[in-house]
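S1.2 Input.
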Amino acid sequence: KRTLLKVQDRQELFDIPADEDSLIRHYSLSPADRLEIELRRRKHNQIGFAVQLCLMRYPGRPLMPNETPPGAMLNYVAEQIDADPRLFDLYARREETRRDHIAHLLGYLEMRSPTADDRRAALMAAIDAASTTDKGAVIAKAIIATFRERRVLLPAVNMIERMGLAARAVARRRAEHALISDLEPEKLETLDALLNVDPAIGQTRFHWLRSAPDAPGAGNLVGLTERIAFLRSLGIDPRLQARIPSGRWEQMIREGDATPAWLASDFNASRRRATIVAQVIKLGQKLTDDAVMMFIKLMGRLFSQANNRKKQRHMNARIETSKALRLFLDTIVALQAANDNDVDPMTILDRRVGWHRLLQIKPSLEAMVENGDMSPLVLAAEQYGNIRKFAGAFLQAFTFRSHRRHDPLLAAVAILKILYVEGRRVLPDRVPVGHLGANEKKLIFEDGKPDRRLYEIATFAHLRDRLHSRDVWVEGSRSFRPIDEDLMPKPTFVALKGQDQLGLGVPSDCATWLAEVRQMMDVNLKRLAWRARFGKLDGVRIENGTLIVTPHTSDVPAAAEALNAEITDMYPLVEVPDLLREVHEWTGFAHQFTHVRTGDAPQNIAAMLAGVLADGTNLGPKRMAGASKGISAHQIGWMRSFHARSETYRAAQACVTDAHTRHPHSQIWGDGTTASSDGQFFRASDRAARRSD
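S1.3 Output.
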């Protein structure tokens, strides 16, 4: 059975609040209310009537049969009408009394029971809310807000939940229709064929597109460009994404990411095709970003390896370098002796060092000097063959843009693209050089004509830097797009600034802000200086104008260390799966791993915890299943695919953190407004390591 709301959502939306702020805000009685209550003759009817009045105002429903409000709410209402809250137990022993009070209060509060028009309006509001999100609480709040605006009593919780589920289904169908309504039947059939096994590659194209390699390499970059070309051949316009609100789009992407090809085949035609279209658009952007990032990493690796080779050559030549330095020292000593004795320096040099030895070492010295002065560009050109493996495919796959008019870098990229398309190896006599530095130009045109290898690698190096700085961007990319798209439009900024609605948390006038900061810093620095001068700072003093901070020393007595060891020995040995299960029973964190589409909590908690442990230890589903009893790799894989996401991990961590905050021991470390970090560095493993992250 589908559910829309979590337990905590139900409590927040429909339970009677008991905290002081909510009681004051919702259940404070006006003089007119108290006068209306006093018209009831008996005290137990007065307090019951008052409770009915409060509940019909908020949360907007009547008192249910045999329902008893929280004690805090009863006490607060009874205190206002000078009644004993225990008298509520005598209220509404006759059901007619409760119904009569409800009917009277409907007139007094100018409310009414919901009609078909009210439910229709609430459903439309829920559809609007569901068009941007799948979160049940948001959809339910839209329904409740509509009923309250129309001054209508809230229907039963199950009714609101059914309306929310229906609205969510309608919003999903509308989004699916918006994506595929303009596609021709032939194109829809092509999309369906992506879920069939292609004999040419031995797998479905849907899986092939989503399993692109991510380790930096020439072959992997070519594979990315092949997938991008295939996606473009499908003819899906990326602008279809603009037809769907961002929240709904992100939900479709999350569902598609968790859906394997065999499961997508079981969807109805509308959902299946919309899922494929969304994945095609998303993959086009993702693979573009991945390819550009892989190009950046490959170029960075090229020059890094060139520098490493240069260092290694210096290390390998250290013996020859030592010999050359010894010979040079001997030469200086011989020349010095000749100068001191006023004799022919060549005679002394030939006798002590040997002219033939100097001539013999000359070629080695020339090679050492040449290697020492070798430019990183020349060293990088030694790996030009590896660059050629992917350069042509990379240049043909993308269109680069820049804010600069007649950008020489883009002109150089265009020439290189033509050379690869036509299969030519020699550069034209005249090529754009405005993007190159003086030393690079000197190296490239050393022989009069431009060197193809050096020119191409230098151009790619500048392209890498410009992509990094977002000065050059790529069409179809999300990460490498013009930086202007991340900024607020200027007319919007001017309008918000004029209305003082920028919400910056600081004054919108820079001069005013700087004056406030200067004043605050001046006061704080003077206070610090005064306290330091007169020894008011603990462990800090000033000597001869120098600030000296005394380091803290450990003052833990040996008895405490012994007690710590004794307590540690008392801890029981607990298996990690048992510990996870026990923490879940304390906090319920596993319930936060909701299903990507339905929002339901996981039914198989053991498999969910095994999936969390598989993520935390990098074991993977198969090895985790082998280490677990009664849990299959399929169950663990299902939980990881459909329940474990970044947002559900954040919700689970927040659940555990809330439990920490509620625990009495947490108060020993403060009120939670500050925190510390030891700055540990964890090396990336598994897929991240292969991506060179």
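S1.4 Remarks. Residues 269-316 form the longest helix (48 residues).
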